[in-house]
């Protein structure tokens, strides 16, 4: 699952992936959102600025205990220990955000996308980020060579419309937002 060093700052949490969550906020206004593999919760915190409620899921109980200490978004953030490799998410959501997660799972990228799709409400939105075409050697990665073009093609084949897609060279990362058309 995503692991970054985060530091508290005046307006919430900030970390290496803050820009990802800021970009995805536009899809979360007044929505029920799942932050799949929320880690220390900085993304959940950012999304809760605009979302109706954000469910933060992570496999690490230690991370979730730290998340629960932050009471500034109480009532709009709910945290739960969840193994994304073993279980689909427990509810239906308007938006699922999964930032730098799919490369850490044992399940294939496509199996993970299918699981997320099964938990989206009618016309729900899936927001993904992943390392772009990274080869073996990355600590904790189990999936390699993930390409934006391949993920977008699979999403479209699976009934999604791509809303935005970009490869961020300076971050060696790719991000995609796609809406389920069913």
Concise summary:
The chain is of the alpha/beta class. The chain has 5 helices and 9 strands. The chain has one domain (7-180): Vaccinia Virus protein VP39 (Rossmann fold), CATH 3.40.50.150.
Q: Could you explain how this protein is built, in words?
A:
With 182 residues, the protein is of the alpha/beta class. The chain has a single domain (7-180), classed as Rossmann fold, CATH 3.40.50.150. The chain has 5 helices and 9 strands, in the order E-E-H-E-H-E-H-E-E-H-E-H-E-E. The strands form 2 sheets. A 7-stranded mixed sheet has the order 5-4-3-6-7-9-8, sandwiched between helices. The protein has a two-stranded antiparallel sheet with strand order 1-2. The longest helix has 10 residues, at 109-118. The protein is globular and about 40 Å long.
Overview features:
single chain; 182 residues; alpha/beta; Rossmann fold; seven-stranded mixed sheet; disordered N terminus
Structural class category? alpha/beta
Q: What is the H level of CATH, i.e. the homologous superfamily?
A: Vaccinia Virus protein VP39
**Count of beta strands:** 9
CATH 2nd-level architecture: 3-Layer(aba) Sandwich
User: Which regions are unreliable across 5 or more consecutive residues at pLDDT < 50?
Assistant: 1-14
Q: Give the overall shape, derived from the CA principal axes.
A: globular
Major pleated sheet:
7 strands, mixed
Instruction: Please bin the fraction of helical residues.
Output: 10-25%
């Amino acid at each position: 699952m995503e692991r970054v060093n985060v530091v508290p700052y005046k307006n919430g949490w900030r970390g290496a992936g803050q820009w990802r969550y800021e970009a995805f906020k536009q899809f979360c206004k007044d929505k029920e959102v799942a932050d799949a593999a929320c880690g220390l919760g900085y993304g959940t915190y950012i999304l809760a600025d605009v979302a109706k409620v954000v469910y933060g899921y992570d496999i690490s109980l230690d991370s979730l205990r730290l998340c629960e200490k932050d009471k500034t978004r109480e009532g709009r953030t709910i945290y739960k220990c969840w193994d994304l490799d073993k279980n689909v998410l427990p509810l239906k959501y308007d938006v699922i955000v999964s930032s730098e997660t799919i490369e850490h799972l044992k399940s294939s990228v496509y199996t993970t996308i299918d699981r997320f799709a099964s938990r989206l409400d009618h016309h729900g939105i899936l927001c993904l980020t992943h390392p772009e075409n990274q080869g073996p050697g990355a600590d904790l990665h189990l999936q390699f060579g993930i390409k934006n073009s391949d993920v977008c093609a699979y999403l479209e084949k699976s009934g999604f419309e791509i809303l935005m897609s970009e490869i961020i060279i300076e971050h060696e990362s790719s991000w995609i937002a796609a809406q389920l058309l069913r």
